[in-house]
Structure formats: C-alpha cells, structure tokens
Amino acid sequence: MVRVSWCEGLRFEAEDQHGHKIIVDTEKEFGGSDMGFRPLQLFLVGLAGCMGMDIVGILQKKGGKISSFVIEASGVRAENHPHKYTKITLMFKCEGVYKREDLLRSFELSRDKYCSAVATLSSKPELEFII
Question: Quick one: 17 and 50 in the same domain?
C-alpha cells in the first residue's frame, strides 16, 4: 500500500506502509517546486531497483561476488506524447563480477521471470553493460 498526499502546488508526498517517504513534484516551469522526483523518474527508479535487487540476489545465491554495482536508467520521451517513454535504456556498471556469463544470466532471469516492473512494459528495455 502507498498513500500519496497533496502538499501544495503540484507537490505530493508518497508514503508506504512502513513510513518511508518520497516527494513527487515537477519543474517550476510547469507549476511545481522542483523539490522531488518526477513521476516518470520514479518509474525508472522502480525498474532499475527491481532489476538490481534481482541481479545481486541471483548472483549471491550462485556464490558470485560483486564489489560495485550501479544502474543508470534513462528514457526517451515520445515526440507526440511528452509523458510517455518510447525507449528505456538501463546501463549496468559492475565491478568484481567473476563470471560475465553469470551476470548476463542473472539479468535474463530478472528481465524474463522475476522483475514485476519489467512485466508492465510493452517492450523490453535496452541494455548496456560495463564490467
């Protein structure tokens, strides 16, 4: 469960059942206060976080080691619909992964089987790996 409450202007505060909070807002030029995440940015956070947790968890279960793991998520907005992404790219920057094939397999499992955020997409995100 998530509760989203209006603060003022176009700013909202989202809170989950454990009391964790995040601000949802927009740029000043669109009437916001530019103090929080944009809704589409939050979607990218959810997507990257979901896949990241899957990948690290799968690698750890297989005995793999990671010393550093960063995901950069970006989206290209549709020309005719500025609130819709037409292309989502995830760039994975990993260090300390012993077997590249284990990393690729864990990504495939997350993308195809485990990540609920990916399941909501009409097309799979594009990927880049830096190992």
Answer: no
Residue for token digits 């909070």?
21
Question: Structural domain tally of the chain?
Answer: 2
- Whether residue 118 sits in one domain with residue 67: yes
pLDDT, tens only, 11-69: 999 999 999 999 999 888 888 889 999 888 898 899 999 999 998 899 888 887 788 88
Q: Which amino acid is at 35?
A: M
d(CA 48, CA 114): 13
Same domain assignment for residues 12 and 33: yes
Residue 124: φ, ψ to 5°: -70, 145
pLDDT at 8 over 70: yes
In DSSP terms, which residues pair with 68 in a beta bridge? Answer: 95
- Same domain, residue pair 6 and 33: yes
Asked if residue 86 lies in contact with residue 76, where contact means CB atoms within 8 angstroms, the answer is yes
- The Cβ of residue 118 has, within 10 Å, a number of other Cβ atoms equal to 19
